[in-house]
User: Fold this.
Amino acid sequence: MLEAEVAVVGAGAAGLSLAHRLAGPGRGPRTPSVVLVDAPPGPLRPPRRTWCFWEAGRGRFDAALTASWRHLRVRPPTGDPIEADLAPLRYKMLRSDDFEDLVRRDLARSPNVRRVEATVETVEEFEGGAHVRLRHPDGGTGVLRARWVFDSRPLGSLPAARTTLLQHFHGWFVRTARPAFDPGTVDLMDFRTAQPATGLSFGYVLPTGPREALVEYTEFSPRLLTGSGYEAAVRAYAHDVLRLGDSQVLATETGVIPMTDAPMPRRVGARVFRIGAAGGATRPATGYTFAGLQRQTRAVAAALRRGQRPVPPPAHSARSRAMDAVLLRALAGGRVDGPALFCDLFRRVPAPRLLRFLDGRTRLREDLAVGLRTPIGPMLRSALELPGLPRRPFDRPAPEPPPLETV
Assistant:
């Protein structure tokens, strides 16, 4: 039987981040022993993906960044683009392979973190801890006994919600025959795309050089497209809107992120907790997850080092979640024009303040100032409607994106 003070189930962004924060000495009098359980290669292992987030100054994972930008651009359906300087923030792009390589090197040097490749079959609590029952790749079984368990695996289904939209996207990593991109500017939202009947769509361009970029088509809507539908959408954006001309697709990336006002319980039992997207780290109105799970795992690691009860905190405040519920309802009900709403916000609110707002890092008076720059009537009607709406289960399992593929 394996034993550790902390069992971390799943080696995606949340699991690796928590293990990384607990590797070696840190602030606090204690350094707990950790076993990180990573699924064997196959459908249970997290697919490769790209994470983006913004922060000021140097960050914990800067050595693994693909690129970062200080300028962003938002393009309305017609008319001039909205351009903004993000200082003191930077918008950062991190690919999961590079993140995992950085974390893996640090974990390999850690005397208190052990990594085990196995499938978790059950987690069973007992007085003072939990048993994590494992099946190893060779078919053998085992048990990991831990005082605390942090489960970062995706949920099998979404909790009941008043509103659920899906953020679903398909992107190409491209190399063009001629210079086609501004390496200093990220196109955060380009609304020169065909809009769906419900929700909104936009293009997204992360340039890594004058001829290289990740070019994505993204929708916020209740239903997914077909595989051919995604290919057609990103092709139309790349060729008809961006007019990239001759280009080579080096790899593709597809993902689905639930945008829901469902409560995401972080406590499974007295000593078993959820972290990451399964523990509510995703910001409902934007789909951004990486920054939220960093706040969550930082707090958990600090509590463990101090010998305190390590309940994962909410990644986003109650006020932020309430505002997101209103926005999701207004978008799902067709009460607001999504492209017009986001363009007006970036046009009327300084970009650094708006990004801090989208990350839940603003004060109440700043939140109110941003709220006054949205369509007040439709948003107020959506807010008044919410208390009377029943929470209903979503009619499909919680989606998990397929892996990134090299073409």
Q: What stands out?
A: Residues 110 and 147 are 20 Å apart (CA to CA).
